[in-house]
Design goal:
Alpha-Beta Plaits, alpha/beta, 2 domains, eight-stranded parallel barrel, TIM Barrel, binds manganese (II) ion, elongated
Amino acid sequence: MIVVLKKGTTKEQAEQLSLKLQDKYSVTVNSWYGELSTVLGLLGDTHKVDIDSVLAWDIVDNVKRVQEPYKKVNRAFHTENTIITLENGLKIGDGSLNIIAGPCSVEGEEQIIEIAKKVKQSGATMLRGGAFKPRTSPYAFQGLHADGIDLLLKAKAETGLPIVTEIMSAEHIDLFENVDIIQVGARNMQNFELLKRLGKLNKPILLKRGLANTIEETLMSAEYIMSEGNEQVILCERGIRTYETYTRNTLDLSAVAIFKKLSHLPVIVDPSHAAGIPWLIEPLSVASLGVGVDGLIIEVHNDPPHALSDGAQSITPEKFDATAKRIFAAKAALDAALK
Ligand SMILES: [Mn+2]
C-alpha cells in the first residue's frame, strides 16, 4: 500500500504517521523523501488497513492499494482451484460441468418430484427450487417456506439429487440443515450479517452477484463468508442491471473470466435470470463455457404458463433435455479443442 503525503509535509510529521501505522496495523513502513512529495510504502498484511482513517490525516494526499483488499478469496494466496465435494461425492470446480436445474419456486410435491426426475434424466447434477422467494412485490407468491424445503428433501430422497435453495434471513438457518448448497440471492449479496452467519457453517454457499454490484464487491462478500471459516463458496454471475431493456439483466461474462483469474473459487452462471428469455438460455450457456464456467443454474418448469414465479423465463423439461444435450456436447468439444 502506498501513502502519498501532501506537499510541505515535514519529516517529523511523516515519521509520526509512520510510527502510528506500524503500531496500529503491524506493518513495516518505508519512507521516500522526494523534492515534491513524501511517499510511505506499507509492507506486510495490509488487508486490515482502513483507507478512510489514513486519509483522515491532514498530511495525507492519497492512498493506493497495490494488493487486492480480499485475502482468503485471492488466487495470489491460493493458486490451486478450490474443489467443493458434496455429500454424494459430486465435485464442483474440478473442470467438470455441473448443471443445477429446477423450478423458480417449489409449488407442490408432485411438481418438484416430477421435475427432479426429468432433469436428472437429462444430466442435471443438482436440483434447484425456491422455498423462500425474494419477490419485487409483497403481493406476489412468497414461497412455501419450511414446507418447500421439506418437499425439496423428498425430491432429493426420491432422485438422489443434491438440493440448492435460497436463504433470505439468518433466522431460518436451522431449516437449511439438510440442504446441500445454500444460495444467497442477488438482493442479499451485501447482507453482511447473513454472510457472517453462513461463514460459521460447514456447508457450501452459492453466492449470487448483486444486480448492481462490482466484481470487487462480489469478491468482498465471498471474503465475508470465508473470513468466518467457511471456505466452500461458489460465485454466481446472474446478470447485472444496465440500460438494456431487451433482456431482464445483462449477462456479464467478462466477470466470470475475471472471477476465475482473481479468485480460486468455482464460478457458475445463471442464464435464466440474466436473460429472462427462454431461447437465450442455450446460447448464453454455451458462451459461458468459453469463459471457464464450472456450472450453470437453469430454471425448468413442467408448466411454465402456470408457474407461480418466473414462468416466462422457464423452459420445459423437454426443452431442457435438448438444451442440456447441446451444452454437454459443446463442453466436450471445447475441452477436446483446448487440450
Ligand atoms: Mn426465479
